[in-house]
Amino acid sequence: MNRHKKSEIYEKLKLSGDTYRMALNSALRILTGRDHSKYELIRKLKQRGFKLKDIEKAVLECIRLDYINDERTARVCIRQLIRKGYGLQRIGYELDKKGLVGERIQDIFSESVSDADELEGAERILKKNFRRFERETDLKKRRNKIYRFLYGRGFSQDTIRKLVNNS
User: Fold this and answer.
1) Total number of domains constituting the chain
2) Domain end position, chosen among 53, 68, 83
3) Which of 83, 103, 120, 163 has the CA that lies 20 to 30 A from 57?
4) How confident is the model at residue 10, as a pLDDT?
5) CATH number of the domain that 154 lies in?
């Protein structure tokens, strides 16, 4: 459907006062791409200019239909970030950014990743990228580069120290 036709339909719905239906349709289009947290969906609907009462109704309907589930979204996000080779700090930051906060989300986070998992992930990402560090002949500079690399990926200082001292 071309832009002109879409804006025509949008204007007709707006004139008919069915802004809730428009907000719900927009929410459903947003959710077809990937899982979103409740916070992300609200933010995106606000950016599209919908009224707060319409946003709240649309979000409640999406929750009722189980299209939004913050716990499921948190699990998916954590798995993806672990697979990409990020540490606990970075995963926590990404969850906060998506509005995935609270006691239940923290429990899911604790269940999903342990310190041992973080160490294993850091070892894996370091092995994968070791060529870039082996070129450095000065041991102190090499360790500093490894430290900065792993710290930038969100690994804890303890985990990094364990790996740096072994390399």
Assistant:
1) 3
2) 68
3) 103
4) 54
5) 1.10.10
Q: What does the pLDDT read at residue 117? A: 85
Intervals of the chain under pLDDT 70:
1-17, 166-167
- Rounded (5°) CA angle 60-93-103: 55
Residues 15 and 27 in one domain: yes
**What pLDDT shows up at residue 63?**
94
**In the numeric block, which tokens belong to residue 91?**
């995963």
Verify that 120 and 167 share a domain, yes or no: yes
Handedness of CA 37, 38, 43, 44 (dihedral sign): positive
CA distance 143 to 71: 38
The answer to whether 39 touches 71, Cβ cutoff 8 Å, is no
> Are both 64 and 39 inside the same structural domain?
yes
- Alpha carbon dihedral 11, 13, 14, 20, in 10-degree steps, equals -140
Q: What is the pLDDT of residue 130?
A: 85
pTM (two decimals): 0.79
DSSP 113: -
State whether 8 and 38 are in the same domain. yes
Q: Which domain holds residue 156?
A: 114-167
Residue 41: what residue type? L
